[in-house]
Amino acid sequence: MKYTVSIEIALPRERVAQLLADPEHLPKWLRGMVLHEPLNGVHGQVGTKSRVVMQMGQQKFEGTETITRREPVDLREIPKESIVHFDREIVTKGMWSAARERLTETGPETTLWESENEYRFNGLLMRLVGLLMPGAFRKQSLQHMRDFKAFAEHGTDVRQTAG
C-alpha cells in the first residue's frame, strides 16, 4: 500500500526541518508516542536504529526505526533551492513501512511538507488490516502532520489536548 499526504506550514523551511529533527519535540506532536530511543548512532542521522513504542487506544506497537536518508545533514543555513529529505524505515511485527519526507520552500515564511508512505504486511491478520482499513493509515499520517503544524505554528502540545 502506498500513498502521499501533504500540508503547508506557516514557517520557514529551515525552522520546520529543525523542529522535525529535534527528538525533544517528538512527544509534543507525535500522538501516541511512548518511547523513541536510539539503539545505536545519533538520533536522526543516517544509519541510526531506534526503538519506537507507540500507543494507539488499547494497542501498543513496538518497532525498530532506521534512518535511511537525511539531506542536508546540517539543518542550518539550508540553500534556498534545496529540498530537505528525511527518510526512514520502520519494522514491527507483521509490518514494514517506509516514509519519505520532503520539505520544500514555498515562500519566505511557508514550507510544503510532503510525506510519501509505503506499507508491506506480513501474516494474515496484518494483511487483512491493510486490505480492510487502508484509509486509517492515511488518516493517521494526516493527523500527525496536522498535530505537527499546530505545534510548530502555535506551540500546541498533543499531550495537553483532548482527542
UniProtKB/TrEMBL annotation:
Membrane spanning residue stretches: none
Source organism per UniProt: Cryptosporangium aurantiacum
SUPFAM superfamilies per record: Bet v1-like
Coiled-coil stretches: none
Record InterPro entries: Polyketide_cyclase/dehydratase, START-like_dom_sf
Protein name: Carbon monoxide dehydrogenase subunit G
Pfam families from the UniProt entry: Polyketide_cyc2
